[in-house]
Amino acid sequence: MNFLAHIYLSGDNDLIKIGNFMADGIKGDDYKNYSTDLRKGILLHRAIDSYTDSHPIFRKSKHRLHEHYGHYSGVIMDIFYDHFLAKNWSLYSDIPLSQYVFNFYKLLENNFDILTLRIQKMFPSMVKENWLVSYADIYGLNKILYQMDYRTQFQSKMQYATNELREYYEDFESEFFIFFEDIQKMVSQKIDNN
Fold it and tell me: 0.85 cut: is pTM over it?
């Protein structure tokens, strides 16, 4: 799962959302340096990543990409699944995607001092280019994948992955729906048990 799914799966607690969102940059036991709810978000992020990587549906989706993208296929699938979440947003939330994203950007802005340095540096570009809303269409995905490919000095070839997305679109989307139902149950149980 990529940014949008991590944020959505965090529920309504703002600090859990922030912790989940910035968790990639927090390694090992460093999460213990944060407040209780931020810690919960960081640990929830790790649980989501672990669950996703081992889920048979996600692995099936990822397998279609492996021949051309190797170990980047998981990263690409995370972004594809965010695409399907954004595209089908009204099935998951009564708040329109653009409003939900605007609220999240405001949340980050209002809590800027607790964000990791990595997120602080990324934030202006994220808002300016409206990354989270851009997941909803293939044009936006192309831009995101190009930027990610650029960061790998074009070794990943991620910018071409929308070719496979178009070719297997219905398969990927139906797999997303099954997977997302499962992960929502897992997250709900995890949050209830904390």
Answer: yes
